[in-house]
């Protein structure tokens, strides 16, 4: 009984172990398959990556071509620089030529001006010779000027300029003296006027005093007359009232 049971237990445990082993193997196979699949994908990725590297390498070659083109551009730039320098030198050469021509033109112009100046001087000399010489002309001008100084507009002779100036100064002094005398006369007239004013003021004061007295008398007389008229009016008024009162009394009686 016990033996059977043991056998039974061992057989069942063996079968379970077998099952577990099968499952483990199956799982291992599945994992191996997955690993193989992943390895294949990785290989493909590697191939793709290699292809990319090849394409990138191609890009590098293109870049090298680009570098060559850039080098060609640099060569062209160098040629442009040389061309620019050549043009600059040509421009400077032309500018120098223009400056040289301008200097030549200025020199010729100076010569022309000098010749014209000489011609004008010669013409002056000719006209002076026709007049009779420069010194004589100048002397005659001075004499004519002296005549003008000696004679005035009316043709009358007058003193030299200096004497005339002195005369003018003396005349100015006379005017100053005249002005001073005029001021003195004016002051005298002012003093006379002030004296007249004082006399007039005194006269006015005296007249005013008499007028005041006379006016006072007139005022008083008028006041008395006016007061008398008022008193007379009062009397007349009182008499009239008295008469009316007497008339009333008679009537009442």
Automatic annotation (TrEMBL):
Residues 23-40, 211-221 have a biased composition (Basic residues). Residues 41-116, 124-166, 174-210, 222-232, 241-253 have a biased composition (Basic and acidic residues). It comes from the Eukaryota. Residues 1-253 are annotated as: Disordered. This is Uncharacterized protein. It comes from Eimeria brunetti.
């Amino acid at each position: 009984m016990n033996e059977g049971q043991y056998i039974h237990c061992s057989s069942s445990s063996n079968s379970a172990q077998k099952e577990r082993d099968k499952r483990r193997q199956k799982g291992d196979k599945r994992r191996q398959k997955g690993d193989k699949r992943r390895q294949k994908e990785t290989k493909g990725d590697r191939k793709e990556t290699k292809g990319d590297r090849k394409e990138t390498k191609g890009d590098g070659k293109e870049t090298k071509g680009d570098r060559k083109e850039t080098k060609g551009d640099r060569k062209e730039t160098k040629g442009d620089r040389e061309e620019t320098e050549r043009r600059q030198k040509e421009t400077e050469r032309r500018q120098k030529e223009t400056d040289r021509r301008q200097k030549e033109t200025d020199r010729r112009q100076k010569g022309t001006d000098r010749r014209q100046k000489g011609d004008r001087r010669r013409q002056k000399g000719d006209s002076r010779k026709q007049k009779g010489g420069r010194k004589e002309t100048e002397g005659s001008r001075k004499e004519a000027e002296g005549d003008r100084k000696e004679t005035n507009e009316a043709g009358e002779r007058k003193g030299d300029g200096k004497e005339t100036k002195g005369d003018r100064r003396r005349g100015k002094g006379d005017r100053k003296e005249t002005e001073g005398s005029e001021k003195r006369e004016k002051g005298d007239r002012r003093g006379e006027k002030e004296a007249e004013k004082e006399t007039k003021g005194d006269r006015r004061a005296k007249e005013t005093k008499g007028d005041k007295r006379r006016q006072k008398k007139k005022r008083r007389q008028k006041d008395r007359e006016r007061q008398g008229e008022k008193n007379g009016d009062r009397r007349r008024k009182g008499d009239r009232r008295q008469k009316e009162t007497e008339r009333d009394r008679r009537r009442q009686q």
